[in-house]
Amino acid sequence: MQLLPLQKLDGCRLWIATLGLALFAPAFLMSADKTQAPADTLARVRQTGTFRLGYYADAGPFSYQDETGKPAGYAISLCQQIAKDLKNEIGLPNLDVEFVLVTGADRFDAVRQGKVDLLCGPSVETFARRSQVSFSIPIFPAGLAALVRADAPAQIRDVLSGHEPPYRPLWRGSIGLALQNRTFSAVTNTTALNWLTGKLDEFKIDAKVVPVESHDQGVQRVLNRSSDVLFGERSILLDAKKRNPAGGDLIVLDRLFTYEPLALALARGSEDLRLLVDKSLSSLSRSGETQNLYKRFFGEPDENALTFFRMNTIAD
């Protein structure tokens, strides 16, 4: 058998390797992750002529379905204004605005997969979430609160409100005593649930956590006493209490456990769209329209809310 020279052998190996890559490249590409949306969302909007807005059916005054089944709410109204500005910015006056219903469990996946171009609901920006999606400038100064029955034990209300009876000193163990062997709820896949489980671990409280699929479900658990407390964004809890026929039997405590500004979510890498969204939100705030929407859905904004909007408005 005749042996090939070393140079020819190396050339054959290179040729074989190149052929192998050519043969297997299609299969490799087909097996790549298809869950990520194309980075340039704005280019896709231009190409399809459709702007898809994600919304929730039961996120309190932020995003809900009205009596006709149409999306409504504070975040929805902001997104509708953004869509109007987008039509003018990209020169598509006939741009089709489509609303896509999402849930707390699939909302960020819908953004990542390109099913939704802009998520119009109450989303808290965290580092974990920023690894999946991007966020607009903040749209609301939110925070976590607690909902209990009006006849809940005074000890629970006092501890959750940050009060202690004058005859007993405040100490770490007293918090655990008041909350021991209780049942708490929060909506699944929310920062409220993460915060709740973290605090129970921190204070070594032996309590049960029952996640719920919606705030209305959590309210019902408190009403029928299967949960002692429902934790969630305070304005959403207030709205759920107001809408429930038995709302008079409930109390939303004044204390805010966290400060969690809410924002709109969009796909990572969509910087052109994010620029337009932030520009539109800032313009709405400067014109006073955002404050008018706040008044419509939450009541007259106090000085803290007005300061929040001033601080989160970007200059032209």
CATH class membership of the largest domain: Alpha Beta
Principal-axes geometry comes out as elongated
Name the average pLDDT.
86
Order of helix and strand elements from N to C terminus: HHEEEEHEHEHEEHHEHEHEHEEHHH
Provide a count of the helices: 13
Description:
This protein is of the alpha/beta class and 316 residues long. It has 2 domains: 41-141 and 262-311, D-Maltodextrin-Binding Protein, domain 2, CATH 3.40.190; 144-252, Periplasmic binding protein-like II (D-Maltodextrin-Binding Protein, domain 2, 3-Layer(aba) Sandwich). The protein is 45% helix and 19% strand. It has a 5-stranded mixed beta sheet. A 5-stranded mixed beta sheet has the order 10-9-11-8-12, sandwiched between helices. Helix 3 packs across helix 11.
Short description:
This protein is of the alpha/beta class and 316 residues long.
Secondary structure layout plus pairing:
Layout: H1 6-30, H2 41-48, E1 50-55, E2 58-59, E3 63-65, E4 71-72, H3 74-90, E5 96-101, H4 107-112, E6 118-124, H5 127-130, E7 133-135, E8 144-149, H6 154-161, H7 172-179, E9 183-187, H8 191-202, E10 208-212, H9 215-223, E11 229-233, H10 234-243, E12 250-252, E13 262-267, H11 271-287, H12 289-298, H13 303-311
Parallel strand pairs: 1-5, 1-6, 9-10, 9-11
Antiparallel strand pairs: 2-3, 3-4, 6-13, 7-13, 8-11, 8-12
Helix pairs in contact: 3-11
